[in-house]
Design goal:
Residues 3-170 form the N-acetyltransferase domain. The chain has a single domain (3-168), classed as 3-Layer(aba) Sandwich (Aminopeptidase), CATH 3.40.630. β6 and β7 form a beta hairpin. The chain has a 7-stranded mixed sheet with strand order 1-2-3-4-5-7-6. With 173 residues, it is α+β, with helices and mostly antiparallel strands. The mean pLDDT is 93. 27% of the residues lie in helices and 32% in strands. The protein is globular and about 45 Å long.
Length: 173
Amino acid sequence: MAISVRVADLSDGPAIDKVLGECYPALFRGAYDEEALAAFLPHIIYSQPELLESGKFFVAESAESGETRILACGGWSLHRPGSREVIAGLGHLRHFAVHPDCIGKGIGRSIFEACAQQSKEFGVVEFECCSSLVAEGFYARLGLQTIETKELTLKEGVPPIPCKIMKTRDTSL
């Protein structure tokens, strides 16, 4: 299966929503209780137009039998999620997901590599992310280290969920 990575745009939203909607519920079961999943999944299984319009969000796709299919997504931003705070040299990894049928095939890594390559143009020398409990291993394999565990509030009225704040200082990004 030949995979290509490209910058996403708004027209990719429905296909990205499909990946997010299949990835997160499948992978998060067992790591979070059912009550927590019911509360927070509806807030994370949809693409974010701001990211899709940023030019810093990528999709990995395959073309089989003449049909192109998005298999994974992810991106980065200069500003910290949930704020407009920008710290020189720091990029934030955002909304990574790989379709459950494609996990472990290097597709998520290929999106990370596209982010790392592009981010150099913006002076980024380190990345930070707020990882779900199940994605901690993925980010660790990319060179990020867990620096703290915290409770993340997605939206008022939604119970906070545990997450891992991870960071790399690998200047070879």
